[in-house]
Amino acid sequence: MSQWSRRALLATTLGLIAGGCATGGAGDSTYRPLVGQGGKDVMWVPTLDGLVMQMLEAAAVTPEDLVYDLGSGDGRIPIWAARRFGARAVGIEYDPKLSALAQRNAERAGVTDRVRMIHGDIFREDFSAATVLTLYLGQALNLKLRPTILRMKAGTRVVSNLFDMGDWEPDRTLRTPDQNPVFVWIVPASVAGEWTLDASPLGAARLRLEQQFQRVRGVLAALGGGGAIALEGRLDGARLSLSSATGAAPGAVATAGAAQRRLELLVDGDLLLSLPGTQAVGRRLR
Ligand SMILES: C[S@@+](CC[C@H](N)C(=O)[O-])C[C@H]1O[C@@H](n2cnc3c(N)ncnc32)[C@H](O)[C@@H]1O
Questions:
Q1: Given CB 3.0 to 4.6 Å as the disulfide criterion, which of 7, 46, 226, 261 pairs with 201?
Q2: What are phi and psi of 110, to 5 degrees?
Q3: CATH no., domain 193-284
Q4: Ligand 1 binding pocket mutation candidate from 93, 105, 121 (most atoms within 8 A of CB)
Q5: Domain 3-186 has CATH 2.40.30.10
């Protein structure tokens, strides 16, 4: 193991203990796991009950949601998601004894109609149906999962106890009572490329967009040479908000008397819909 990996492991270990439950155990007469016991890619440290609530509230979980906890330990997060929020929930846990304990815990909590515990590997199981993902894994694992998470449906909420996702900035950061961070991301739609718009502040136009996670910038160019404006903005899931950029984007020419221009759109695959309506006003060219 390299010195860097050793340091990362130590930081994750200390972090996990700081963000979870460092004392006591959980379990039943069949199996009593130990806090800090080894796991496939990361050890088991349970999230404190109050923090479970805080994470699920931060994701604004409702009965319509399907919550997946990746590396679900004794199953407390899926169980709380079902019990307190009425959601359907799934836990994926590699350790067979923890997974079996989670299943018994779900039975004791009377939530097996809404909760499923999968004994499996988070890097092999399909969690693409989730509308909410909860993580307490460490930054290295978050980064390894990131490409898969970014391919999930736009609007999926991702909550991570303590660990960030590198240069994918969180949409929100909350603090636990002991000041540890809880990060929330909304999976952004994929918008990079070129679009044609039937209607825009410049009339019929071409929209060229660059994207870095939820941040977007680009150029809106009127068809027929009627000028162009630089735009910048962000995605809130599938909702794209753009307004005139302060700095000029390459290739943009300010139109005469251009005031603040705004575009509020909903991304639906290869279509752009007007907001608040649902009429298609644009489509992807490439
Ligand atoms: C820090 S604990 C978090 C447990 C639970 N999510 C909670 O917040 O109480 C991380 C869990 O991930 C599990 N784990 C580690 N690598 C895994 C993998 N590749 N697939 C599934 N679970 C894994 C560990 O066994 C451990 O239970």
A1: 261
A2: 70, 35
A3: 2.40.128
A4: 93
A5: no
